[in-house]
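ingest -> fold -> write
write: protein_1
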Amino acid sequence: MTRSSGHRPASAAALHQALAALGAAPTLDHARRPHGPRPQYAPLLLGILLAKAELDAAVRADPAADPPDGLTALIRGYHTLTRSEEARLRLLTLRLVRTAFDITLYEEPGDPCTPAAENAAMTAANMINACRLTRHGTGPDDQHALTTALESAHQFHHSTAQALKQARRQLTKNRSL
């Protein structure tokens, strides 16, 4: 299997076509959008494409399978497109930020676990970003971003420790674990 070597981000129209081929495209109002989706819709369409890919991956690549052939193939396929370490670190950072955001969607009042998980994901995201900036950053903007990432990681780490302490207290109260 081969792939094109295009390095430019996909256009909104190309993303919409891909989503249509996968049966996941949002319906366009052709009266208002006779020329297709606008460029500013590309991030939204990318988010839909990410969700579609991750939902399909969850069905086809079960990590509990023995042997986990689908998972192995999924990871191999993913890494064929992300060849540079910097791109992989950037993607990992974005995935962790999305994970932290997704955790907040399931948080319920009084839930002791999700705040710790959310802060831990953000700690990891900031540390992976700091790693990327340390290895691949070259300018003063990168140095500033590195300082910010490290400060954010420190704050999220502190929040994780506090949330974990609270969760432990709340979950073990009146229980003998």
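write: protein_2
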Amino acid sequence: MSMRKRFLKSVFKPLGSPSERIFVASAFAVSSLACATLSVTARAADVYIEPAISVAVGHDDNVRLDPVNADSQSRVKVVAQAEVGSRTASRDAIFNAAAHLNRYSDSELDRTDWFFDFDLLRHSQRDEFGLLTGYRRASTLTTEIEDTGRVQVDRLREDWSIAPFWTHKLTEATDTTLRYEFEDVAFEDGAQVGLIDYRNHSVDVSVTHRLNVSTNLIGSIDYQRFESEDTTDSDSVGLLIGLERIFSPRFQAGLSLGAESTDIEFFVADGTRENRSDSMAIFTTNATWTLENGSFLIEGSRREEPSAQGSLSNLEQVQATWQQALTPVYELILGVGASQREFAPVGSQAAEDRKYYNAEARIVWRGRPRWQIDFAYQYRRQEFDDPQGGVTGDASNRADSSAVWLTAGYTWTRIGLFR
């Protein structure tokens, strides 16, 4: 068999297990339902489809960010996606579907990740109603590397979410938004590798008041209910107050400060439950500079987030991105980021801290309409502090990774389906 045929057979290998066939059948049914909903909501609007495809080839010298056994892998990633939508003056309906075919030099890591989103929006002069839904079925190697870091054993992660919201214009200067979001995350045999299924509910009320043409006063209060599988349950209330300001045509920034209080109930070794209360300061900030043929963005935050570790995690992160057009067809993109997650202790298990750093440099070519080719270098580092002693026997573990990527993508012109 030729190398080309072997590659195509590896990339497009059939779905063999019954669960995979059931999933694809279900995904097809959901896609058909979404498209049928689009055709009903379209009425006087055109329904369109915008497909896209990209192929990336690359190499990562430590794909799992393992501090002991670096796993060097070559990888081919094929992304096929499509947006089907309908837009009118008063409503939007948009369905997105994507398949990420990941093929490694070690075929045991091969996995196809699936992503689906379906959003309905309706707006009037004073109100906007929306329903945002999403479903993801993917490998923990691609979904957990920046979160828990538990990717030494590959597992399947499935999560779905639904988020209705309502935005109402109270006055010409004041808007308020009410939003609810539910997320359910489950792993295939995740407990064997320390990944715990969880559900998270959140309700958020936010208000934006325009003080003048350049300054907004913003405030929000939210409630969060986190439930993990036989591990912890927690209830959190958070408050943020801040300002957003346009300082000049080239510079704008925002800062919000607040606090969050959490009540945690967890199982202990004898099967009983204990309670603990925590509080922490939280914030969000961002700043954007518009440069000559480019832009610079920096964002930072401190907040609580759901975690597959079996509890909420305290997340601190900062990210900076510089984009600069070098010529009419070439663009340079530089990004650096850092985050720290503190995982709350669960029962007798001690707390753990994990730091994650990343840096990326990309050269993007857009020399022809609807085509994009880019070359990227990515550096990642993980530092994992484990009070129990890590896999090396030390209290601190560190892993580094360098990767290079060459990606070519094409997006088709929107195609009208029917009216």
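write: annotation protein_2
The chain has three helices and 19 strands.
The longest helix spans residues 18-42.
pipeline exit 0
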